[in-house]
Amino acid sequence: MGNFDKKLERFWEIFIEHDGYVRVLTGLYNTIYIAVAGLAIGILIGTIIAIIRVSPKYNRLSKILDSLCVFYVGLFRGTPIVVQLLVAYYVMLPMLGINMPALSVCVIVFGLNSAAYVSEIMRSGILSVDPGQMEAGRALGLNYRVTMLKVVVPQAVKNIVPTLGNEFITLIKETSVVSFVGAADLYVAFNYIGSNSYEFMVPYLVMAIIYIVLVAIAALIIRQLERSLRKSDRRH
Amino acid sequence: MIDVINLRKTYGQLDVLKGITTTIRQGEKIAIIGPSGSGKSTFLRCLNRMEDPSSGSIIFNGQDITDRKVDINVHRRQMGMVFQHFNLFNNKTVLDNIMLAPVYLGLRELRRLKWQNRLIRLRNLLRSEKLPLHPITTSKAQIKAEARETAMRLLKRIGLEDKADVYPSTLSGGQKQRIAIVRALAMNPMVMLFDEPTSALDPEMVGEVLDLIRQLADEGMTMVIVTHEMGFAREVATRVLFMNEGSILEDDTPERIFTNPKHPRTQEFLSKVL
Predict the structure, then answer these.
(1) Pairing assessment for the beta strands B63-64 and B55-60 based on DSSP bridges
(2) What is the rounded CA–CA span in Å between residue B180 and residue B196?
(3) Do B168 and B88 meet the contact criterion of CB atoms below 8 Å apart?
(4) Does residue A204 register a pLDDT over 50?
(5) pLDDT in tens, A42-86
(6) How distant is the alpha carbon of residue A224 from its chain centre?
(7) Phi/psi class of residue B27: alpha, beta or left (left: φ > 0; alpha: ψ in -120 to 50)?
C-alpha cells in the first residue's frame, strides 16, 4: 500500500487522459441497460408464465402449457447464467445462422433468465393471498378472471414488489459476467484501465464502489415503491 | 327451490358425501348440524358449486347446476354465501366490498346491450324494416349511484354506515361478518348459504351476527345454515338436518330432533353438545 498515491496517479492518467472514463460510462450504461431491459423482459414473460401456472387446469392444452412452463423455469434456474450466455452466443446463434451484437444477446438471455425467477416470485405472491378472497369473489358470481384482477392481484402485488426488487439487484450484479461473450460492461472498462496502467488495485476498487452505489440506488427506489404501496394499506 | 338428488363427493379414496337427497323449499330455514368431518360444509359448498360434486344433481330454478355447460356464475348471483372467515376483500373499503359485484355486473350488462344495439343499427342500415333496439334506461352513473344507495341502506340497517370508507383490517370479527352478510344481500339472492358464520368469532360477537341472521329469517329469506349453535338452530330453523359420515341421518323439525332424536348417533351427538 506504500505507493498508493502513485497507483492513484496512474489510474487517473488512464481514466482521464486515455479516455478510460468513456469506457467506464459505456460500461455503466451497458450494465444498467442489461439489468433494466432484462427485468422488463423478465416481467413480461414471467407474468405470462405465472398466469399459466396459477390458472386452474381444466383441459389438455392448459396442462401442456403448464408442463412447458415448469420445464422452462427448471431449465433457466438449473443452469448458471454464464452457461446460458455462452450457449446462446456460441452455440444457438451460429446454429441458427443469426448475427447479433453481444449486447442484444445479453439483454435477451438476462430477460429469459429473469423470467424464470420472476414467474416464481409472482406465482408465490398470488398463492400467498388467502384463497378465501377468490372464493368470496366467485360466490358473488364474479368469474375467475374478474376476481383475479379486482381482488387477488392487487393484494399479491404488495407481496411481489419487494421480492421483485431483490431480483433487480441480483440482475445488476450478475451483469458482471457479460464480458464472457464480449459485451462491454463495467468489468471490461476497468480491466482495460488496469491492463493499460499495469495496475489493478485502484480500478477494481473503484469498480466495487460503483456496484455498491448502483445497488444502493436501486434499493432506495424499491423502498420508496414499497412505502407508497403500503400507504394504500393504512388508509382508514 | 333447490332439489338435491343423490349428491356424492369423493376426494380420492375418501367418501365425503355418500348420496344426499333432499329438497329446500322457498322460505325454509334449514340448519345442518353434526360432528366435524360429517360433510356438512362440503354439502353446503356443493349447493353453489364452490365444490364440484362427484355425481348426483342439484336442480336450482329448474336447471341442473351440476351440468358443466351451465354458467354457474349466473346461479351463484342468486345464492348468497357467508363464510366462516368472513372473506371480505382486504384491498377494498367496506362500501367497495358491497358495491363491487353489483356495479361490475351492472356495467357489464350495460356494455353488452350497447354493443348489441350498435350491431342492430349496423344491420338496420341495409334493411327497410328496422329492427327495434334494446331499450337502455340506465347509465354508468346511475348504476353506480343505485349500488351505492343499496350499500348505504344495508350498512345503515346494521348500524355500520360510519364504517363505509374503512378497510376491513380495522373492523372487529362481528362487524366483518355482518358486512359479509350484507355484501351477499346486495345481490338480492333467493337463498342464503351460511357456512359456520359464528365459528371464528369471539363469544361476545356471536350475538350480533346471530341477531342479523334471525332478522333475515323473520323477513322470510330462504336459508341454509351449517352451525354449531344448537340454541340458535332450534329457535330459528324450520327444519334440522343431522349429518354423520357423509349422510343425512335425520331430517326433521327442530322440536323433534332436539327433544326426541330417533337415531342413536343423533342422541349421542346431542348429549355431548347440549
Answers:
(1) antiparallel
(2) 13
(3) yes
(4) yes
(5) 999 999 999 999 988 888 999 999 999 999 999 999 999 999 999
(6) 19
(7) left
Put simply, whether A143 touches B (Cβ < 8 Å) is yes
Give how far the C-alpha of residue B215 lies from the chain's centroid of Cα atoms, to the nearest Å.
16
With cell 492513484, the residue in question is A8
Using a CB–CB cutoff of 8 Å, tell me whether B48 touches chain A: yes
| C-alpha dihedral sign at A26, A28, A32, A34 | positive
Chain B, nearest residue to A132 by Cα: B87
pLDDT of residue B219: 94
pTM comes to 0.84
443469426: which residue's cell?
Answer: A98
Measured in angstroms, the CA of B125 and the nearest CA of chain A are apart by 36
CA distance B113 to B122: 14
Instruction: Tell the residue number behind the cell numbers 342468486, with chain if given.
Output: B78
ipTM, interface predicted TM-score of the complex? 0.90
- Taking the Cβ of residue A131 and every Cβ of chain B, the question of whether any pair is shorter than 8 Å is answered with no
What integer pLDDT is reported at residue A236 of this predicted model? 42
Q: Does A139 touch chain B (CB under 8 A)?
A: yes
* Of B92, B17, B88, residue with least CA distance to B58: B17
Q: Compute the distance between CA of residue B16 and CA of residue B116 in angstroms, rounded to an integer.
A: 46
pLDDT at B213 over 80: yes
Q: How many CB pairs under 8 A join A and B?
A: 67
**Positive or negative, the Cα torsion across A123, A129, A135, A140?**
negative
